[in-house]
UniProtKB/TrEMBL annotation:
<dbReference type="InterPro" id="IPR043129">
    <property type="entry name" value="ATPase_NBD"/>
</dbReference>
<dbReference type="InterPro" id="IPR052519">
    <property type="entry name" value="Euk-type_GlcNAc_Kinase"/>
</dbReference>
<comment type="similarity">
    <text>Belongs to the eukaryotic-type N-acetylglucosamine kinase family.</text>
</comment>
<keyword id="KW-0808">Transferase</keyword>
<protein>
    <recommendedName>
        <fullName>N-acetyl-D-glucosamine kinase</fullName>
        <ecNumber>2.7.1.59</ecNumber>
    </recommendedName>
</protein>
<dbReference type="InterPro" id="IPR002731">
    <property type="entry name" value="ATPase_BadF"/>
</dbReference>
<dbReference type="Pfam" id="PF01869">
    <property type="entry name" value="BcrAD_BadFG"/>
</dbReference>
<keyword id="KW-0418">Kinase</keyword>
<dbReference type="GO" id="GO:0045127">
    <property type="term" value="F:N-acetylglucosamine kinase activity"/>
</dbReference>
């Protein structure tokens, strides 16, 4: 739809969102939304919200909700962006996670001069949404915040990452390897499967946390005489400003948050690039772990076809998979997978996952609109 056609339909859209006083009371809650009483909307056009919540940060993107073909979706402008901390309820608790999510949505709307009454759809994609009960809890909470006309979609953050590489289409596989890791896939007819993503205690050893935790263990083993000497000892101690391996114990347990530990991954990569055998072994094992997660999803969904030679997109997201000068984990994962799936199509998205979440909100919303009109 052209901007002129959009304006011509404005009156019809306004009639679709008529809020009575009782409904306004039901979702006008908390100081977090006080800005709605203090500002005049810059625009009363319809908007979408896309949220990507991981173990490290939460990002909310606000985009206009316009009708046009899917091929034009990548041209939707970003009206505003807000960033907050971790929103994984398994890491920070349910109350803190909800506060973070609500604040980041309010910030995004405030920045572009919009109110909740202008929101048409929200795709909230957060880590820790692993079961329908997780979805229902978040949906119920969102319903208390937003007016009834807003379409709500709650998914795992891996879905937003996949969408960021496929322009809102849920087909193929995504591999996330940042603080945590997960592989998630979809067939074109809607079947889905996942592997890993259960957190460090349950074996996500290809993650940034897993890599760094093994490096810390290697330092302690070397100090005890239970393992080989390694360049990791001096490099990690220097990075943390510590003078001995004994001090590493206190540093680790003072704040064992996943992101804090995972921040040591660049040190491990640097040591491997300089030829340290212990660091090199840790990274090689991480490549195998990440590749095995993707392989499990692809085979369960049959994305590679019966003979293993069908093409499928593999979206790769996360700091662990970013290119390094000599020790490139992402490239080694692809090389490993290519032995089994010669037509795997690696995609490194040009937009962040929160944009993918907004694209999903647009796709979900438009699909329902077209079905309603049919």
């Amino acid at each position: 739809m052209t901007p002129k056609e959009h304006e011509n339909n404005k009156e019809e859209k306004d009639q679709e969102v008529v809020l009575d006083s009782e409904e306004m009371k039901s979702y006008t809650n908390g100081e977090i939304w006080n800005f709605e009483d203090e500002i005049m909307p810059v625009s009363d056009d319809d908007v979408l919200l896309g949220l990507d919540g991981g173990a490290t940060s939460t990002v909310c993107i606000c985009m206009p909700c316009l009708r046009f073909s899917h091929s034009q979706l990548h041209s939707l402008p970003i009206l505003s962006k807000a960033v907050a901390g971790c929103s994984n309820h398994n890491s920070v608790g349910e109350i803190a996670a909800r506060e973070t999510l609500e604040q980041v949505m309010a910030d995004a709307l405030s920045k572009c001069g919009s109110k909740r009454s202008s929101v048409r759809a929200i795709c909230l994609a957060v880590s820790g949404v692993n079961h329908p009960t997780d979805q229902q809890k978040i949906l119920s909470w969102l319903r208390d915040i937003f007016p009834s006309h807003v379409r709500l979609y709650v998914r795992n953050d891996a879905v937003a990452a996949l969408s960021s590489g496929t322009i809102g289409k849920l087909h193929g596989c995504v591999l996330i390897a940042g603080t945590g890791t997960i592989a998630y896939g979809f067939t074109e007819d809607g079947k889905e499967a996942r592997a890993a993503g259960a957190g460090p205690v349950l074996g996500d050893w290809g993650s940034g946390y897993g890599i760094a935790a093994q490096a810390l263990s290697a330092v302690i083993k070397a100090h005890d005489g239970r393992g080989p000497s390694t360049m990791l000892t001096s490099s990690i101690l220097q990075k943390l400003g510590l003078s001995s391996a004994e001090e590493l114990i206190g540093w680790t347990y003072a704040d064992p948050s996943w992101a804090r530990i995972a921040a040591l991954v660049p040190v491990v990569v640097s040591c491997a690039e300089d030829g340290d055998e212990v660091a090199n072994k840790i990274l090689l094992e991480s490549v195998q772990e990440l590749a095995s997660s993707v392989k499990a999803v692809v085979q369960r969904l049959g994305l590679c076809g019966q003979d293993g030679k069908d093409a499928f997109p593999l979206v790769m997201v996360g700091g662990v998979l970013e290119a390094n000068m000599r020790w490139d984990i992402g490239t080694k994962v692809i090389n490993c997978l290519s032995k089994d799936f010669p037509k795997v199509l690696p995609i490194r998205p040009k937009v962040e996952p929160a944009v993918g979440a907004a694209w999903l909100a647009w796709n979900f919303f438009m699909k329902e609109e077209y079905e309603k009109e049919a």
